[in-house]
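Agenda item 2: zinc ion complex prediction
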Amino acid sequence: MRGSLLVDNIGELVTNDIGGEGGPLGIRRHAAVLVEDGQVAWVGPARDAPTADRRIDAEGGAVLPGFVDSHAHLVFAGDRAAEFAARMAGEPYTGGGIRTTVGATRAASDDELRATVRRLRGEAMRQGTTTIEIKSGYGLTVADEARSLRIAAEFTEDTTFLGAHVVPAEYADRPDDYVGMVCGPMLAAAAPYARWIDVFCERGAFDVDHARAILACGQAVGLGVRVHANQLGPGPGVQLGVELGAASVDHCTHLTDADVDALASTGTTWVSGFEPTTVATLLPGAEFSTRSPYPDARRLLDAGATVALATDCNPGSSYTSSMPFCIALAVREMRMTPAEAVWAATAGGAAALRRNDVGRLARGARADLVILDAPSHLHLAYRPGVPLIRQVLHNGVPQCRP
Ligand SMILES: [Zn+2]
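Presented output:
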């Protein structure tokens, strides 16, 4: 959209600008934001605001950077509501249901998959998510992984090749052969559409040797590394991620002291500004939906690790696209402060994607803004389940209503 746009009458502006005053969230009061050419052109006191072609009145509401959801599985078909109901009736979660979604995804047309991604992307946007990572991982053939990523790339720059989500049934008794295919023809077909490579490093999925081999193959063709690690039990995934310089290790539900130390040793983005740390991305929607113990966010934060929050949106273990819901869970169930949770859902997600153009509101950042129907970011956790997102600007363009 051409021309300049001024968002003013902002009661509380969260900038995540750690260079200034206002605590870790860089909070400014009675502020205004000028948007030009899809970027933030100016941030300052409303009384000093420059004139603009158009204006949005925030009506005293809080304005935040758009949420950065750094972990989502949106390319799939079908749902697993019955599995959820069985789990809530007492059956344990094992990850085995992934193969159910693989069957449905292989049988779906491109247009059916595209429609699901579009629906969930829109759902997330209405809840304030302006940047989203999208993984493959429900195709698990060369052709189905490549088309999953090709479709994902229509919706985001942050696409992740997750051919190593689970060993598909037809390879169940020869996992070495499957790993060879992931590293060979599947990676070759997927890489043109992928920015990242990811592995589900877990008992029942891929062991540490297979995971290391797959991630190294991805690195060799220029993909960044992320790992599904330590979700269902303790394991080597977190250490492997740190060893390989992963942008993020995700889940982190079962950590040893050595795992926490390893993550903390990579640095704290909160204090030091943007640095390529290995972020601990916590996915509390998964613990909610599988009725499992939550990760110990307090322990990670107190040790000095960088923490992000993401939805893990997928049809099996976490079918939510709502970052506000994850913020509320993190505060209520994981003992994060509201400020820590909001930071983790914005700047933390950006760090987990090694991006500094999103997750903050400062001159030069992408003009991704969320305007709340509430005076403070505190309300995101204080008023759980309430649709507080009044307006979303993505690349400076209003998404919800004029
Ligand atoms: Zn996941």
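Discussion summary: The first helix runs from residue 81 to 88.
Owner for follow-up: CH.
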